[in-house]
Amino acid sequence: MHDIVLVGAGRIGRIHARNAALNPRLRLAGIVDPMEGAAQALAAEWNTTVTTLDDALDDPAVAGVVIASSTDTHLEYSLRAAAAGKAVFCEKPIDQDLARARSAAAGLSDARLLLAFNRRFDPNFQALKARLDSGAVGPLESLQITSNDPSPPPPSYVAISGGLFKDMAIHDFDMARWLLGEEPVEVFASGSCLVDPEIGKLGDVDTARTLLRTASGKLCVISNSRRSGFGYDQRIEAYASAGMVRADNVTESTVQVWGEGGASADRFQNFFLDRYAEAYRREMDHFADILDGAPPSVGYADGVAALALAEAAAESARSGKVARP
Amino acid sequence: MHDIVLVGAGRIGRIHARNAALNPRLRLAGIVDPMEGAAQALAAEWNTTVTTLDDALDDPAVAGVVIASSTDTHLEYSLRAAAAGKAVFCEKPIDQDLARARSAAAGLSDARLLLAFNRRFDPNFQALKARLDSGAVGPLESLQITSNDPSPPPPSYVAISGGLFKDMAIHDFDMARWLLGEEPVEVFASGSCLVDPEIGKLGDVDTARTLLRTASGKLCVISNSRRSGFGYDQRIEAYASAGMVRADNVTESTVQVWGEGGASADRFQNFFLDRYAEAYRREMDHFADILDGAPPSVGYADGVAALALAEAAAESARSGKVARP
Amino acid sequence: MHDIVLVGAGRIGRIHARNAALNPRLRLAGIVDPMEGAAQALAAEWNTTVTTLDDALDDPAVAGVVIASSTDTHLEYSLRAAAAGKAVFCEKPIDQDLARARSAAAGLSDARLLLAFNRRFDPNFQALKARLDSGAVGPLESLQITSNDPSPPPPSYVAISGGLFKDMAIHDFDMARWLLGEEPVEVFASGSCLVDPEIGKLGDVDTARTLLRTASGKLCVISNSRRSGFGYDQRIEAYASAGMVRADNVTESTVQVWGEGGASADRFQNFFLDRYAEAYRREMDHFADILDGAPPSVGYADGVAALALAEAAAESARSGKVARP
Amino acid sequence: MHDIVLVGAGRIGRIHARNAALNPRLRLAGIVDPMEGAAQALAAEWNTTVTTLDDALDDPAVAGVVIASSTDTHLEYSLRAAAAGKAVFCEKPIDQDLARARSAAAGLSDARLLLAFNRRFDPNFQALKARLDSGAVGPLESLQITSNDPSPPPPSYVAISGGLFKDMAIHDFDMARWLLGEEPVEVFASGSCLVDPEIGKLGDVDTARTLLRTASGKLCVISNSRRSGFGYDQRIEAYASAGMVRADNVTESTVQVWGEGGASADRFQNFFLDRYAEAYRREMDHFADILDGAPPSVGYADGVAALALAEAAAESARSGKVARP
Fold this sequence. Notes:
The structure is a homotetramer of 325-residue chains. Chain A has 14 helices and 13 strands.
């Protein structure tokens, strides 16, 4: 049983609080949030107390810190927690600025830091990777990652999001690296504003295609849109020498209606917290592994590498030229 | 190249005319129909002539006769064609009366007679049987045959149809025998009038379930309705000791629409002539095999056996008791 | 927050303990089990204490009792708990003996008793019922319930199980009643021993088909086997006047492998505790509703009615005749 | 009934011969092929005669010419047939050389020329386009075209093929134009040799991704490989503002096997002549429309435009830069 403290009582923080509280290997020892009401409500819900980051880092009983605060604090809090000898669970992205993220290497490259790319913990994508790793379809050759949100965020969110590539596609860059088993060396991206003109006014795109190429010539296409029109569209197709493995979207139930128009399946899951509920549970469980001594399966260097790809994609979309991460 | 004559220029006769005319091993040498206009139109369409059954049977150049006339003529014409030494392609059913069908044994049991249970020639059901015969899933144990029409026929058709069990389920009794590899020895059926009260007034049912049991205890359920509400519903599930093989419905295309309500497939094929177009082609090709010397894969005895099951089912539905074919 | 006590620390009891402990509206106030070790281990796991049924019924703080002990105690414990004024969550079946179950009516018909037919709480079957209830496909006409276990239980279990109809099909009889909205008045069943000869030696069957018929002529087929060969096979097809609603099996993930042999989906869920994990959670949540004052959605009378159908089916399978529940 | 002459008795010529011969609106009046044996065999099969292109063009009874000869003759024969006043059915591509193809504009832009991009006539892709055109999912925004062969051709074929982009992807460029409803103005392509090193030695690629962008910002990705490992992989996903329409691969039957490993569908169709059998039939039927006076739905200009995109893609794959068609 490891004591951990959660920093951030917002939407994603509440998910982590629940998963930590229900994990038999973890004890949720405190909640930190500048919004006192939010911290207190969450602490009450899970029968723990409100604390501060300083107190938590000073407390030798606290073994780990979960950082689910705003993006601009991820790097600083991670560095402080690592310096205090705590294991770190840090929400993605590690930072929005690649240079700053890279400069933290001294403080973080040896840290027991789990960078919470939740999709690596999704049962469907894990099953896909297991099939590939089993060798059943031969070596991977190319990859199609489809990652579309159900509907666009408000422009106010877009304005501080870091842009589609760093905010949304960063998950897909991490998936690409995870599955390709090789670093992309060339990035070409093309983006458009087709969904919401307000997004374009903010200098961002809402629809994009990104083409990654590794040194050995493996190819990966990432398709992103801020709006699918039908739900949370999260799919992967992995072409290998002897076949293809794919992970499909998740529906709300197995029910179908067969009528004059044909067979209609149930709706696709629409909300990322539903779609990835099990992934969030599993990544928290992996944090317990780390507190037990296991190395993080995804860490600081992965956060930097995904960010580098995101910056390269954004640069390519601007310049119309191939960029290198 | 074998000369054959078609008797019957109605809906199903036109299908057989086309398949015979386009089969490189057959020559459609004549059309017989009491409705002169129908015979002439069909003969013109396929560049052949109108003839009579007498002339066709007398003509030594005619090797085979396709009987697609009204049901009450099937038995008589088959007997005459067999007596004249012709190979016979006879539409199902062999007759509506079991005693009469059985009494024809002397004239037909050795005949080169193909009884046209078209579903045996459907590529999907053939693929299902091939999987079972391959042994990949072990011996068959039980069977679910679903066979629902898109929408009910007019009461005028029902009145002369012989009733749901002889008219519609007779195909399913044949499929059951074909797949079970063993004769059903007990039949229990329950029928209702849920679709069209006019059908009930005619003493018939429009919805039924029939349970067949073989001597070794294999079980088969046949589900019938005159109206599915969504298309032509023709499915089979075959449970074997190491798994299950199933054949599903056919859609009009592979297109799906993914929208807010979920994924919608294209419509199911609705019309039996579309659904079984390839089956009709293949059964005509099998008639060419027979003319080349092959034994019929399904013949007179199969027609009688299916009719016996249909009569037993109708009797069981009336009496509420198990019947024996 | 309602205090409840769990009776029975076996496999299903442990599921209920977990769901009660994690439900924010319930407090697991004690565990009862004659096997002291099992009770203590489960109490320790969920931070509660071991108690006795007598003490629990005497304790005014205990609002509800969850009965997950052996089947032969269900009726007695339910009566005692009801007499003590407790709300009752009773595992299925209410009893194996119909006469005995009926004779308990005086003590139980007004009880706040939830009979735990878990499938009514499965999200897939609930979604199916919601579609039917919405009227989108018109009134229900016939039903196909498929309910096959992955592999047969040991003969020692079969010997005390009450037989396939009472042990396994009882769930399906409840589903049939729930969905038909009308009581079956005729039952015909046919059973075979095709899976394990030891089951036959015990006088039981391992494969069965049961045909139910309501007064208005609605038809329902239940297909049961102790072994599917491919996983936990739990499906429903509900035919209505304007189409069909179906709930399909659940796979372990959305992953497919596309290879030379075609597309292969992931395995079907194999274990009932996985397949119905959410159903168990929801039925415990419904017990909290009852403790809050809601009427049970499924209770004593439903347990008796399902048992009556199971007895009728067993009788029909023996006699070869239609039976009435 | 229009008389047409077929030029080319090779594999694709034989398909066109069959479809012309079986089309009630066409009469196959002659076969032209420098390989006399091939011409005679095909003429015999369909009961027609061997002729020469000169004779055919001189014969006023000949209304149309089907050009299914080698690619290097397409342009010349089309020009000659058009000059002779014949309607032209020309196999794709119009030529391998863009400049030459463009220079033929004077002779062909007004010709009644059907450029045989067969996929436009596939029932699945037609159904997809019909859904888009119906407006049911709003305006198209982006497109994913997947087009992989089952297995690579021999290097000898690759050597004369014109390269992956002109030989294989040209179909996809035409599909993109057909569906986007707008011309792509930017092309970025990346190609690799991952399947067969011999293809690389010939200076070609066997795996590629191409990204097209239209003036309004619509995006299209084309995925190509010379080897899928599982069959003929021909799929489209069309994202629109209110959902997505997709056309999936075609399986050999609807049969599934459910076993311990899960559900396995039947194999995917493997051979392009099977997959597009109906498309070939429909495009020949459209040639009959043209002979009846209808304008070609796809013609010379489409052939040039697709070729321009193929050249741009090949150039981009060489240079690593965006190219313009």
